[in-house]
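Support reply, case 0932

Customer input (verbatim):
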Amino acid sequence: LAFAMQVSALLLTGIFVVMIASNQLSRKKVFGGKEIKDVSQANPTYLTPDGKTFAIWGLIYLMELVMVIAQLIPSDTTEEIFARKCPVTGLDVRERLMLAFVIVAVWLPLFINEFFLGSLIFLVGYLGLLVSAYTDLAPKMLSGVEQVVLFSVGVSLNTSWAVVATFVSFLQYLGTIGWKTSSVAGNVPVACGTVVFVGYLGCVQAFLGHDFAWAFVAAWACMGISRTQTNPDQASFPMKAMSSTLASVAKYTAYAVMVTMVASVVALAVA
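Our regenerated output:
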């Protein structure tokens, strides 16, 4: 059993490397002569954050690298955490993360070549696997700050971002079948409602789950959406479609998440 666990740990590491390699190949335009940024700019939605927001991937990959390295170090505690089974699929945590990482590697060429329906389907599967793994790696399922930093933060960051990315992908697909407002996929009311939902999840995770990584990404994404609607950049988003209403909703939603994070920290401190 111990040997099988070590093989599984090594396999997860290898698949993580493949995912990173796929990401780098996409940056070099190997998958179709374009980058993710090019496709995103050519297919704007009312939920697409500005370019700066996507820097979050550096932090996500860094903390997932920390997790991947940490799970290679054998210990009874580590194996107990990663051996937890999904009640629906029966897959353990490592197996679910492997599948999630494989999906990212496959999703990249699909998205870059603008197969939006296929990329949406893969992204929904990706989100589902991340949420499933998160249920076993959430801060409240672990013991102490060290375990949270090593095993939870990377998946928390990724899952929170995947929620936003899935909504964006859904609007991009709907845009391809004709649902556009001023040449932008979606509309302002739907975008406002989605932003509030993302913010609500961030607040719940911060105050009830004490998951500050998830909440941080929610606030970060909302600020990025606000900047898209505030800072003119014709190459990324048509200026005639910019909405001051959406900009305000996104900004104040981000503020609400930040305030909730502070309140949660205070509550923990005085408990």
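We compared this against your earlier run and they match. Two observations from our side: The chain has a mean pLDDT of 95. Residues 4 and 268 are 39 Å apart (CA to CA). Please reopen the case if you see a mismatch on your end.
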